[in-house]
Amino acid sequence: MDIHSQKILILDFxxxxxxxxxxxxxxxxxxxxxxxxxxxxxxxRKFNPRGIILSGxxxxxFDRGAPVLPKSFFDGLKAPLLGICYGMQLTAKVLGGEVERxxxxxxxxxxxxxxxxxxxxxxxxxxxxxxxxxxxxxxRKLPPGFVSIGASGNSGICAxxxxxxxxxxVQFHPEVAHTPKGDTILKNFVFKVCGCKPVWTMSSFIEGxxxxxxxxxxxxxxxxxxxxxxxxxxxxxxxxxxxxSRLVCIFVDNGVLRKGEADKVEATLKxxxxxxxxxxxxxxxxxxxxxxxxxxxxxxxxxxxxxxRVFEAEAGKIKGVRxxxxxxxxxxxxxxxxxxxxxxxxxxxxxxxGLLKKMKLGLVEPLRExxxxxxxxxxxxxxxxxxxxNRQPFPGxxxxxxxxxEVTRKRCGILREAxxxxxxxxxxxxxxxRMWQSFxxxxxxxxxxxxxxxxxxxxTVALRAVESVDGMTADWVRLPYGVLxxxxxxxxxxxxxxxxxxxxxxxxxxxTIEWE
Length: 516
Description:
This protein is α/β, with parallel strands linked by helices. It has helices at about 20-25, 40-45, 70-75, 85-95, 180-195, 200-215, 230-245, 260-270, 285-290, 295-315, 330-335, 355-360, 370-380, 385-390, 410-430, 480-495; strands at about 5-10, 30-35, 50-55, 80-85, 100-115, 130-140, 145-150, 155-160, 165-170, 220-225, 245-255, 275-280, 320-325, 360-365, 435-450, 455-465, 475, 500-505. A nine-stranded mixed β-sheet has the order 2-1-3-4-9-8-7-5-6, sandwiched between helices. Helix 6 packs across helix 13.
């Protein structure tokens, strides 16, 4: 069965949780896509979804300029619909119900009382069911033809459906982890209401992607830049599966990689998978350009710009290249089609658009339908080693944005050694796979210390360890004191130039994961 024949359309109203809805549906092995709420009836007709989900959003239905759907949208429904939070309020208002501002706004945990048995609540028991609320409006009066199927302490209409069982609405967020049985509710909607089948698997994805790449590329050569990260490595491996040696991978060593990274990645892809890899040592060039630069955005632009120039020069030596392969992921695609318009600021090192235009290359993006966790599953399916598949995210500008202040060869060496100790001890403690990122940062701060009988005045290293689902938000990890003690002791004893180690206990927001 075609993996795209059983699909759910998610219409985005700007909720911070919209991607989580998609992730939950994908985890149920059903394909789905996120599109702006105003994508239009013609697009929806061609998309031909088995079901539609309206996301929540930051707006109130009473706001001037709030996103809306015409009544004709609901009149023309051919697939079941689930409105979540704002999606429910909008559905109720457009179809003739009444929405009011809550006398008591509801943010946080609440208990759902199931008022009527319903397929969407199958497997939840008799309740009450713990759910997560985030709203300031509520449905006061149901639209004609609707019944209330759930209530909370703050709302008599916390869940509703029409009598045909085609249109549903829930005031809470089933997609978030704080609604423990939310995945059951979403699965019930997808399978029991929409009638989807769980055919979205990585093995079926590979088969379709390989055929698509072969059809698009023909007998041409494809060039791909690999960085040591999971995305570029998996993208390259998938394209290699499709066209073999006609894929040429270019590994640019920019001088700000982790310890032994270039050798490790090259050995894995070249020896284990016999991929065609060209390694370019441009470390002197990059470090020369970074000399005296302390501004984070300038660092990013320099590294991004130099990468394009080095990559372009190397790719230009290869005859018959007509395509560029990239590890673009689905969150990048979603950002570019947000109903609010493309993101105003894209990190400079991600911008390789000029390369396509100048070299007149077509674009191959085999991962553009996938989330990060799906990329890891795909890598495993393709036989990629665990060490690369489950590697923590590493920023494009590398150590340059973990070295606060000027980036020099000496400072890179200090951070490289400290970072290697952090990763070694985290792995030794069995914690590496439980967190999103763990790394060291070299601060532009020197402190007084005593080592042996001598007074020292040397560098400070900060440790950063966070847990996260997708990097959009993150909390600092409560590392065991024993691990912190070993990391600190080893860095101070083994890394020349460091006499103090501190631990970053900031969450995102308000801080970011990286320091620059």
